[in-house]
Amino acid sequence: FLTGNGRFVFSFAFRSAEYRRLVRLTTPSLLGAIIYQVTILLPGMLGSYFGTGYISMMTYANQMISIFQVLLITNLMSMVYPNLSRSFSHSVEVGRVKFVQYLKLFFMIVMPVVALMIVIGHEVIAILFERGNFDSTSSHQVFYFSPISATGATA
Predict the structure, then answer these.
(1) What whole-number distance in Å separates Cα of residue 43 and Cα of residue 60?
(2) TM segments (predicted)?
(3) pLDDT digits (tens, 9 = 90+) for 61-110
(4) Residues 141/47, Cβ–Cβ less than 8 Å
């Protein structure tokens, strides 16, 4: 903000109700981002102690989870969010009802996909990544690293 002598001075009202509301609204997103970054950083740090190739395997597992996250979850959210937003702006109660409906829909779509990935995940990884020095043993290890990456996707 411009003062009388032509200098800019920034001031923040940390105790205002608007600021506190903003912090409350952004905290879940911030925590999700922190958890995601930790799930990327921690396996990389731990993988460096295991030996050659483990960081690559964790990277491949993270790519598998990211494919699932981008193709399914993000697209579903981009379709649902505007409707949910309108519902909450109309009435909180209507928004809650819609939220529960959409949550059930997400579980009905995501759970079979997760079950399918558990059943045929190893084969999918083999099709996508097996070539050269990346053999069946490597794809099996990537399959076992996938749940570690999945914890970050839920954030």
Answers:
(1) 12
(2) 30-51, 63-84, 105-129
(3) 878 777 777 777 778 888 888 888 888 888 889 989 999 999 898 888 88
(4) no
* pTM of the full structure: 0.54
Tell whether 77 is covered by a domain.
yes
Range of the domain at 92: 35-153
Burial class (CB in 10 A: 0-12, 13-18, 19+), 68: buried
Sign of CA dihedral 100, 105, 106, 110: positive
* AA identity, residue 127: I
Number of domains in the chain: 1
Which neighbouring-strand residues pair with 134? Answer: 131
Question: Beta-carbon neighbour count of residue 112 at 10 Å?
Answer: 10
- Give Rg (Cα) of the chain: 22
Residue 14 lies in a domain: no
Q: Hey, is 134 helix, strand or coil? A: strand
**Rounded Cα distance, 116 and 15, in Å:** 49
Does 30 reside within a domain? no
**Would residue 83 count as lying in a domain?**
yes
